[in-house]
Amino acid sequence: MAAARLNRLFKLKPLSSSPPTTLLHPLIRRGICAAALDSDNDVRFFGGLSHNPTFSIRRDPKERSVQWVFLGCPGVGKGTYASRLSHLLGVPHIATGDLVREELSSSGPLSEQLAGIVNQGKLVSDEIIISLLSKRIENGEAKGESGFILDGFPRTIRQSEILEGVTDIDLVINLKLREDILIEKCLGRRMCSQCGGNFNVASIDIKGENGKPPICMAPLLPPPNCASKLITRADDTEEVVKERLRIYNDMSQPVEEFYRRRGKLLEFNLPGGIPESWPKLLQALNIEEHDDKQSLAA
Known about the structure:
Elements: H1 2-9, E1 23-24, H2 32-37, E2 43-45, E3 56-57, E4 67-72, H3 78-89, E5 93-95, H4 96-104, H5 111-119, H6 126-142, E6 148-151, H7 157-166, E7 171-176, H8 179-187, E8 189-192, E9 198-200, E10 204-206, E11 215-217, H9 224-227, E12 230-231, H10 238-261, E13 265-269, H11 274-285, H12 292-295
Parallel strand pairs: 1-3, 4-6, 4-7, 5-6, 7-13
Antiparallel strand pairs: 2-13, 8-9, 8-12, 10-11
């Protein structure tokens, strides 16, 4: 099965120039485009669908669920929001970085090869990433999973074309945040050396200027038992973070345009931290959540 799927991944089907009909989760209504455009200019939905929102909504619960992609600069929090949506919609959150780390810690066939690549500071090839991804999707299907939310893939045009050639991505959510805030958030990242928990000590409080709204993002502080065990990633320096953002922007622009032309790109400007951004993101996606207290817990 894995070999057959992998072969399909590299046999691209012809790409249509017109935006396809999008299959969305039943919680999402036909008004997604209008909701996106009316959300205080925080969201922009690209493509002809905004003028003629004729979405095909899943009615039979036995059919597949959403197949979404999260894009965003390092430090923007796409993993956090992707994970929250995966719990809310009942689909797996698949982060390619996690797949690489899991393979490295295993005795799988790629672990030794991956270790050599990572130790040399090289980029993991498309072939390896796609092999890990196809294996993860196959294993999930065998367990009854339907749909997914991808985080960290695709990052290049080639990866986008490969993914488009195998499955129908419904929506690409592109999280946006000012670069100065991204840098501050990246420099504030901390990890507990004992439990591995991730935290952020940066406290963002920027006043609104030139018609732009203020942005406040509270720090994500550790519990008392982790406070004395926090460490900083060696590569979380201002110089490295800026270069990482520059490389990401150069690579992401063609990918964003790829999905923009297909009417699948939803750009969401984060208005603040999780308490401010989470309900607005749900509103833009036209998703209802019944347990508000749980959803806003940091």
